[in-house]
Every structure is written in structure tokens, then in C-alpha cells.
Design brief:
Blueprint (H helix, E strand, L loop, with lengths): L1 E2 L14 E2 L2 E6 L6 H14 L4 E5 L7 H7 L7 H25 L3 E5 L2 H10 L4 H7 L8 E6 L2 H12 L17 H23 L2 E4 L4 H17 L1
Parallel strand pairs: 3-5, 3-6, 4-5, 6-7
Antiparallel strand pairs: 1-2
């Protein structure tokens, strides 16, 4: 059983922090293949007898529907958007992630505070403010960062969704007149911040440009090493 640490002050009403579970984060920009890798990893672990729970952005019962309704209007201020996402994740932390860790589950997070920080930093937020905002978050066991080139992410994204929405293409930043060019420029800026966060928080970088099977093998080997410690 390990003693968990917070990135900041944590949740003030959570006193004990010795839980037997594990928190594994899969990070990467849109189109990096995170969701596919999380799904395959979950199947792999469950077949080997591990109890697994899964989380991600916009999944709390408290805020998920609110964010989904608010975003299409493209009228949310940047600070408001950050606060909504932070509340969504804090609600999951209290009501899903921590209970799962207490019960000894392996929690797989399809993105975590780092994506929210990267998006906010591209939009001019101060890093110290963001670190305080997300100080309620637990430090994960491992963060696996899937790195891919912006052009490859665009190809994958269009193959899956056939369109680019306002926020995913960074249209609010005024980077380009069309969404395709804006997406590429936005993804380049995001990757710069992901790389900085990777150094600061000790991500394990994985080349996400290979086949799904090759990437999954790297993901599994890192997680299996963690679970066997």
C-alpha cells in the first residue's frame, strides 16, 4: 500500500491517503490515439484479473452535461472554461477516482490535468495559477505521453470525426482563416507545451506514430512493470 501525494493542497476533507490502487494516465493531443490505447489496455488488464476503472475529461455527473451544452455556443470565456473543466475533474476525483483507489482498482485516465493545462497555457493562462487551480489532483503512478506529429493527428482526427470543431481547431485563437490550418498551428503550439509539461512532471514518452499494436505493446510494458513492483 502506498501513500499518495497531491499536486497542491489536495481535497481538504480527505485526510487519509494510503490506498492500494494505481492511477495510470494516458496523455496526448487530439488524434494521438489515447482512447484506443486506453480501451485495449483495459481489456488486457481485466483478462489478467485486475479490477479496472476508467475516467477522463467531461465525465462527471455534475458538470459533463453542462460543458457539453455550453461549448457549442463558442461563447465561453477562457477562465470560465478552465474552471468548468477543473470542477468536472475535481468531482471525479472525489466521487470516482479516490473511491476506486481505496478499493484497490487500477484507474485508467484518458487525459488528466496536463491536457487542461496545455490548452490553457496556449491561451495565455499563467502556469502558477493553473498549478494552484489543479492542486486538488493526485500525482499519478505514471503518465504515458503519446507523441505524434500534427499532420498525423489531423489525418486520424478527420478519419474518425470527418470534421473539425471550433475548440479542437483552436478557432478562438485566430490562428488562421480556415479550420484545417488553424488545427495544425494549434496542435503545434499544444505540442510545445506538452513537451514542457513532460519534462516538468516526468512523463514517459511513447512514439504514437506506429501501429496500434506496437504502441499498445509499449503501453502494456510500462504498466505491467508498475503493477509488478
Amino acid at each position: 500500500m502506498r501513500t499518495w501525494r497531491w499536486y497542491g493542497k489536495g481535497l481538504p476533507y480527505v485526510k487519509e491517503t494510503e490506498w492500494p490502487g494505481h492511477l495510470v494516465v494516458i496523455e496526448g493531443a487530439d488524434g494521438a490515439g489515447r482512447s484506443t490505447q486506453v480501451s485495449r489496455l483495459r481489456t488486457y488488464l481485466e483478462r489478467r484479473g485486475y479490477a479496472v476503472d476508467e475516467t477522463g475529461l467531461k465525465r462527471s455527473s455534475l458538470l459533463a452535461k453542462t460543458i457539453a451544452r455550453a461549448k457549442p455556443g463558442n461563447l465561453l470565456g477562457r477562465t470560465t472554461l478552465n474552471l468548468l473543466y477543473a470542477t468536472d475533474l475535481a468531482d471525479q476525483m472525489e466521487n470516482q477516482i479516490i473511491p476506486a483507489l481505496r478499493a484497490g482498482l487500477v484507474v485508467l485516465a484518458d487525459r488528466y490535468v496536463y491536457t487542461l493545462m496545455a490548452r490553457a497555457l496556449v491561451r495565455g493562462a499563467e502556469q502558477t495559477w493553473l498549478e494552484g487551480l489543479f492542486g486538488f489532483a493526485l500525482v499519478p503512478d505514471v503518465v504515458l505521453y503519446l507523441k505524434t506529429e500534427p499532420g498525423e493527428r489531423l489525418r486520424r482526427h478527420l478519419a474518425k470525426n470527418r470534421t473539425l470543431d471550433y475548440w479542437e481547431s483552436g478557432a478562438d485563437l485566430g490562428l488562421a482563416a480556415d479550420r484545417f490550418t488553424s488545427f495544425l498551428r494549434y496542435q503545434e503550439l499544444l505540442q510545445e507545451w506538452y513537451d514542457r509539461l513532460a519534462q516538468r512532471y516526468g512523463f514517459v514518452s511513447i512514439d504514437g506514430s506506429g501501429s496500434m499494436e506496437a504502441v499498445q505493446e509499449r503501453v502494456r510494458s510500462n504498466v505491467q512493470a508498475l503493477l509488478e513492483e
